[in-house]
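Service request form, structural biology core

Requester: graduate student, group of Dr. S.
Request type: structure prediction, single chain
Budget code: on file
Notes: please return the result as structure tokens.

Sequence provided:
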Amino acid sequence: MINGTLIRVLVAIVSLVFVVGSWITTGAPNISLFSFFSIAVFVCTVLVMMWDQWIWKSKLAQMFPGVSRNLSGTWEATLESFWINPATSSSPPAKTVYMVIRQTSSAASVTLISDESKSKSSLARVVKEDGSWLLHYVYTNEPRLEIRGRSPIHHGSAVLAVTGSPAKRLEGGYWTDRDSKGQLKLMKRSKTLAEDFEEARDALKDRG
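Core staff response, request fulfilled:
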């Protein structure tokens, strides 16, 4: 998210530095720079917006240290739950789900879509820790109405490690407030930002 107040403050500081510099070197302050303040704020806002939305995703920008790894798109994922079903004394089989990551250079959101439920992040961030890029997120899972008797709404969190530049794979674990946990492995991605399970499945099917 672009902070308009911060941009104005930065432009004002830069303008003030030039004014003070001209005062020191010529003996008189040159305040004409302030007449371009509105134009400077507009130009800076446009440039920051272009960076935040698009430029940071370019191959060149992704090479710069500190630029967030681009994970945006719809990923096909394998979800493996470690929950033990009391009736069978075994864990459910692994299933295919889809993770939709929407991302700018400064923010991210995660939606995990299965054939039974949808999880949406309330907090998500892509960070570099100890030289490795990680996706952290906290989510709320809302199962479809007809299955909430056996699978109520719940909350959880996940940490996924990013492999490759550009990102080729995400893998890590999740935990929920139902005392369950498991792991996710994301291997295949489409640039499409899917809205539901069928759209996600079709987008990844097109990629073979």
